[in-house]
Amino acid sequence: MKTEPLLFSCPARLLSAILFLPLLFAAGCRREEGPSPQPVVLQRIAVPPAGQYYHSVYPGGVTGAEDDITPADVDAYESAVGHRVAWVYFSHNWYNGRAFPAATAEWIRSRGSVPFIRLMLRSSSDQEIAEPLFTLETIVSGAWDKDLRAWGEAARAFGTALIVEWGTEMNGRWFSWNGVWNGGAGEGPRRFREAFRHIVGVIRAQGAGNITWVFHVNGDDDPQKEWNRFENYYPGDDMVDWLGVSVYGAQTPLDEEWPIFSKGLDAVAPRITALAPDKPLFVLEFGVTAGNPLGKPAKWADAALVSLLADRWPQIRGFSWWNERWQNDDNPKHDTNMQVQSIPGLAAVFRQRLAGGNVIDRPIFE
Q1: What is the spatial distance between Cα 82 and Cα 69, in angstroms, rounded to a whole number?
Q2: pLDDT at 128 exceeding the cut of 70
Q3: Residue 10: inside a domain, yes or no?
């Protein structure tokens, strides 16, 4: 029996339009009074009920900068897995512009999903280097407050729910906000905490109460030093709404290990839970590459999804697959490929495991 994909159903589009229309009307017709707008919460995304999980994705772009995703990228993923997504994850790189990424956020909202924005204050996509411009010190000093205020005002005007993170995977040396590049032991985590609090504080002050703020760590601390444990970077419960973690399998065909998802999450979940027991946890990035002789992506993903959906970690309330491919060197056989739509057997695993009633493919709102 042939069935129409959920992604393209007209009733789904109509329902999304009906749900969003009053909020868009309110956002467009609200009158600003005075230079200091008061917080106005038009809409926020809610945490799913116990035993239910948001299903979401970073859909993959072309350049690897994570800011050039398109509706076609989301279509390809949703069609492959047979389910829609609650949010669409993407980066806002300040080296390509500091203004709120309204165009991308708009088309994500038009699909009925929530924009999940990685707020990336960096001057290039180069990794394992010190940031020359948007340093933690200049952030705290207020050097970028004008841009942050404008960003917050635009986010508030957007009106409907947004999820935003800054300082992605701060316990990994690949990002310039890691402590290795900011004074090392003690000093680096302290500067990060201050910068996190400053960014959230400035944007919140513009009335952007529709933003859910996320503290997103990597599953492994790198470097593996006591001072670099992600707990040392935590900015405080008052600045964080959700917790997030990245847990990957092999990321290139040349990796000499085949990390198991459940083992990685078993190691990190208790630490995150102890850090903020009352906050929900989301697996914001997970994935595994094809082409590595140590294992099969379909088997890896199947085990990961089974464990996630079996409530093995009750604090977890959702997950987001990293659906990207990229070049590692001049040999195409060494390219990384995590795309569900192009890896044999992977789409079938997702279709089977997402078919249960505990998977939520549209956002719930407060």
Answers
A1: 20
A2: yes
A3: no
Q: Is residue 3 part of a domain?
A: no
288: domain range?
48-360
Residue 36: band (very low, low, confident or very high) from pLDDT cuts 50, 70, 90? low
- Between the two ends of the chain, the Cα-to-Cα distance in Å is 38
CATH number at residue 317: 3.20.20.80
Tell whether 42 is covered by a domain. Answer: no
Look up tokens 């116990």; give the residue.
50
CA 334-328-322 angle, to 5 degrees, is 95
Question: Which residues neighbour 184 within 8 Å (Cβ) at sequence distance 6 or greater?
Answer: 227
Query: pLDDT tens-digit profile of 61-78?
Result: 888 899 999 999 999 999
HSE at residue 21, side-chain half, CA atoms within 13 A, is 6
Instruction: Answer whether residue 273 is part of any domain.
Output: yes
CB atoms within 10 A of CB 37: 17
Distinct helix (H) and strand (E) counts, the chain: 9, 11
What whole-number distance in Å separates Cα of residue 359 and Cα of residue 318?
9
The tally of domains found in the chain comes to 1
Task: Tell me what pLDDT residue 16 has.
Answer: 42
Contact (Cβ atoms closer than 8 angstroms) between residue 313 and residue 281: yes
